[in-house]
Predict the structure of ABC transporter ATP-binding protein.
Amino acid sequence: MLKIENLKKHYDNFFLECSLQVNPGQVTGLIGQNGSGKSTTFKAILDLIHPDGGSITLFGKDNQDITPEDKEKLGVVLSDSGFSGYLRIKDIIPILENMYRQFDSSFFIKQVQRFSLPMDKQIKDFSTGMKAKLKVLVAISHNAQLLILDEPTAGLDVIARDELLDMLREFLEEDDERSILISSHISSDLESLCDDLYMIHDGKIILHEDTDILLSNYALLKVDNKQYEALDKSYILRVKKESYGYSCLTNERQYYLENYPNITIEAGSIDELITMMIRGK
Ligand SMILES: Nc1ncnc2c1ncn2[C@@H]1O[C@H](COP(=O)(O)OP(=O)(O)OP(=O)(O)O)[C@@H](O)[C@H]1O
């Protein structure tokens, strides 16, 4: 569906160098801190910036060669995208009908009602959550095959995030081949939705793993200085000094459970795993 190979982009002292892949039927998450390169990657996929190197293949073609028909198969949410604030939902329906041959206005209107979005209010007067829901709704209302969603849940409360994630789950249920590339700061969003996760830090992918494996095989070992000395470090990915000794990130939880019954082994949330990947040595 989407393949990025050795994408390079240089801005002042920022160097993006990343590869990633979204397979048909899969939801792939991109997690990273502010300024790690998520939006730059998304803009490169959509040919909104000119990369310094690498290749991006969308629907089996170089992204420079995709046709207007291919573009209709994309549903996009970018942080700075959206309609003019002076328009109302009832104004954008005819625009969308003109833009997308497969725009499903009855589905769109039903969802607008379901999420209590006002038809008659100017978008500039919408709340953050209402604007975010509208953006996602537009992306899912024209039978797209691939959604490219840059921080679609940014600024939303827990309930609004949940409603938005439900919208995406329903979109996926309609067709096995539909795929999503989604970025978020909030790893719990990605944990519940994504099949696999990429972590990006300072322009580089520092980890790529199936979500299930991250949750089942990764763990944090909490050891004192003596236990640390005695520990087999073969499967330790990162180590961080703590007041009690060390915390160690492993991707072989079972090995340490079986061989070190006396040490504290915690499953760790995805946030903790990310923190270890970034701040551990
Ligand atoms: N047009 C530009 N000119 C100069 N530097 C840029 C430009 N666009 C992005 N950058 C820089 O590239 C780096 C990555 O930015 P990017 O927006 O991709 O990060 P991000 O991971 O999306 O961050 P956030 O979560 O804050 O949106 C930052 O250091 C940013 O300042």
